[in-house]
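User: Continuing from earlier, I have the next pair ready.

Assistant: Great, send them over.

User: Here they are, in order.

Assistant: Folding the first of the pair now:
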Amino acid sequence: QVKRLTDSREALREFTNLNGEFDLVITDYTMPGIDGTELSKKILEKKPDQCIILISGLGDLIAAEEVRSIGIKRVLSKPIEFEVLMETVRHVLAENS
């Protein structure tokens, strides 16, 4: 099952309501409400082993080292080719299984 949400606060509520029953969270850095790194921090407080991929159009402005220290598994820069996204999803899920 896939849930598509466009507001980070709504996404956090959904994650909480479903007790973190998600295999993977993909979030954009720039989202209404709270940004993707803050959303990730809040999710990881609830479920420290949650797989998260952060997507950003800001390029090098987001420090990959800082993002990984939060617990985010991968950072992808826009634009993203579908094949790259799917390969990243496969790798992240395989690493966590």
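And the other member of the pair:
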Amino acid sequence: MKGAGVLAACSLIGKALGAMYRLPLTTILGGEGMGAYQLVTSMYVLFFTLACGGLPVAVSRTVAADRGTPRLALIVVGLGAASGLAFAAVFAMLSPLFSLIQGNGGTVAAYLAVAPALVFASVLAALRGYFQGKGNLMPTSLSQLIEQAVKLTVGLWLARVLVRGGAVSGVAGALIGVSVSENVASG
């Protein structure tokens, strides 16, 4: 029960950090930038769900039944990476089409900035499921905090620096922050 309490507390702190991210991001990007950000993140969330939506639960159940051998850990990470790579590749290839359909042809760079996050997020989802299956919720808790803290610092900093090149450049900076945060949290 202690692990669940830590996970709940870290989730709440992570949500607070997420809110702290969105408020200044709105100020940095302005209306046009936030509109582009929402368009890109809506497609990212769809692909994120497809790439790793059920992965933590499936891995957790498998690990709990198999007692989480080291070989299974490697298989889990490979499965997460393969899923993430496949969906990231499709996401990147379709980014010009998404951008065109959404009526903002300039957002292709923003799509490409967040595509690597799909790989890292899938690996992270598999690892979280692995540790949850072993009954260890601490890695999941800590990775959530790390993910949000890195997104907050790196994403806002890059958005602030790159918005000088225009709103879409600022959006790309914020989304590079998402990719970096997923990478750091999965490491």
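Worth noting for the second one:
The mean pLDDT is 86. The CA atoms of residues 91 and 108 lie 11 Å apart.
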